[in-house]
Amino acid sequence: MGSNLSFKKMLSYPFTFRQSFKRIQRSQSTKMVLEGPHNPKDQQIVDKFRELLFVEGQLQVKHFDYHTLLRFLRMRDFDLMKAKDMFLQYLKWREEFHVDAIAKEFKFEEYPEVKKCYPHGFHGVDRYGRPVYIERIGMIDLDTFLQVTSIERFLKHHVSEQEKTLNWRYPACSLAAKKHIASTTSILDVKDVGLSKFSKPARYLFMEIQKIDSSYYPETLHQLFIINAGSAFRVLWKAIRAFLDPRTLAKIRVLGTDYKSSLLEVIDPSTLPIFLGGNCTCAEYGCCLLSDKGPWNDPQIKQMLQGMLQTEDENEGELMNSQSSQDSSDGDPENVPIKSVWDVVSLRDEALRGNSETKYNDQVLLHKLQAFEPVLEDAKVKIRMLEVALEDTKSVLQGLSQRIEELKR
User: What are the tens digits of pLDDT across the range 13-28?
Assistant: First the structure.
């Protein structure tokens, strides 16, 4: 069953969570900053989405938070069935690609060498508070890149960075900006990029990263600026855009060399690197793309997030012990995985909704039972159809019996 739970366990875990979360001491304002306001209409369709997934047999807790489900719904224009298929593929990919293990255990020791031949990284935040990600792909030395690492290892590194952004950078930016942050502003410098640089390994790497980002981390891009786009790149761009979905394309601005004013509209010059027209040099780190500058490295914010994750680990340990105790009769102990700050915040928010623990427990139980209503209704219809068929059969048999009696006379 992996991380799924039996129905009996699904009904029992809210009480366990409720007990565990009593230990999470966090102000209401901090909780609201991290979780952000929920649009009532969005909340309604997210609840329906959860019910649909529950009927499908998905009884997990991790990744079922409001914002994760909403991202998949938005990517599929709130079509529940399309969002369901996409989300189930996402869960399958996480299991097959061992994403949790990569995020926790993968070590990209060659990272400093990769940075030299492939300048990229996070650097500060935009004016709204979103993290800024920069790539200078025109400066990639692909031959050296393939000598110091492999495409497979770099893809694992990319996934680990995506997980870090979701579970660490976004929460840190939210605390710093005092509002919910869940998307990135990106800058892609394509100076000197053309068909000659788009070799087979480069195409494969691009396609794999694009697939991972669009299929498994949807709606995390706020805006992408492609700068220094010359005539050679614009020819290439016509081919690349065919692989991008319309929602992503709508967030992309392709600019030539006159890009400075556009970047400064969204990023303060004190944060924007000097090579992009800003004032920042990060001289103490060697250059801006080596600094990993941002709220996620602020000591005070790091302490807050680490405290939350430590509490989460303790709660998970308690949950495992409690679950093992509950399962001792059937010999099938399992646990509910909670691995990110968002999981803690989301479940805490759910547990406190309505300011009544009893009310919450009743609502959860009702919510799970309601998810079976469509199945029960379908069963009722089939039973009624069988009853009608039995009545018809009974009438036919009575007619045959009467005919037999008449023949006997």
Answer: 444 444 444 444 445 5
Phi, then psi, of 230 in degrees rounded to 5: -85, -175
C-alpha span between 184 and 210 (Å, rounded): 15
Residue 281 carries which DSSP code? -
**Alpha carbon distances (Å) from 46 to 4, 41, 43, 163:** 20, 9, 5, 22
What is the rounded CA–CA span in Å between residue 402 and residue 409? 11
Q: What are phi and psi of 374, to 5 degrees?
A: -60, -40
Q: Where are the domains of the chain?
A: 7-97+309-357, 105-297, 372-409
Q: Cα Rg for the chain, rounded, in angstroms?
A: 27
Residue 25 backbone zone (phi > 0: left; psi -120 to 50: alpha; other: beta): beta
pTM: predicted TM-score of the whole model, two decimal places: 0.74
Residue 278 sits at φ, ψ, to 5 deg, of -95, -160
CATH architecture of 105-297: 3-Layer(aba) Sandwich (3.40)
Rounded to 5°, the CA angle 16-345-49 comes to 85
